[in-house]
């Protein structure tokens, strides 16, 4: 419990997010993949507790990565879409039920929501370790 896969071609953002998670949520394991095509074999049911996917990437966009994740059995409640686009745009492309959340990478309020998700995952990982 507590495995996070970040699929984002923005290496600087991905590394920032990974460092943030490691600092504040030490029970969580984070893996970064900056190439969405190479990420596909890493996306397997039971091995990813949270999938963070950038919406706009070259070669294979986030929408296709998410479609693949759902096909291999990743629950929509374990998928978060990240983007530089505003939340209204993202909600039009990913209606309710398509994923857990859509978030703008650069909005502070959105990062607070992401922290709530990490905190919940950390708590579950702690419970799994204790039990």
From TrEMBL:
Q: InterPro entries, per this entry?
A: Bact_response_regulator, CheY-like_superfamily, Sig_transdc_resp-reg_receiver
Report the Pfam families cross-referenced here: Response_reg
Taking every annotated instance into account, which residue ranges of this chain make up the domain Response regulatory? 3-120
Write down which residues bear the modification named 4-aspartylphosphate: 54
Establish whether keyword Secreted is in the entry: no
Keywords per UniProt: Phosphoprotein
UniProt KW Phosphoprotein keyword: yes
Q: Which domain of life is it from?
A: Bacteria
Q: Which SUPFAM superfamilies match?
A: CheY-like
Which Gene3D superfamilies is this protein grouped with?
A: 3.40.50.2300
Alphabetized SMART domains for the sequence: REC
Q: What is this protein called?
A: Response regulator
Q: Which organism is it from?
A: Geotalea uraniireducens
Biological classification of the source: Bacteria, Pseudomonadati, Thermodesulfobacteriota, Desulfuromonadia, Geobacterales
């Amino acid at each position: 419990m507590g495995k996070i896969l970040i699929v984002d071609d923005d290496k600087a953002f991905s590394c920032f997010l990974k460092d943030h998670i490691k600092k504040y949520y030490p029970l969580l394991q984070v893996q970064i993949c900056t190439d969405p095509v190479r990420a596909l074999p890493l996306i397997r049911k039971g091995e990813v507790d949270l999938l963070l996917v950038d919406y706009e990437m070259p070669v294979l966009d986030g929408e296709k990565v998410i479609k693949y994740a759902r096909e291999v059995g990743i629950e929509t409640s374990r998928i978060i879409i990240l983007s530089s686009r505003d939340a209204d745009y993202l909600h039009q492309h990913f209606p309710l039920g398509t994923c857990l959340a859509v978030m703008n990478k650069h909005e502070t309020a959105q990062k607070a929501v992401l922290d709530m998700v990490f905190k919940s995952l950390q708590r579950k990982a702690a419970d799994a370790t204790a039990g």
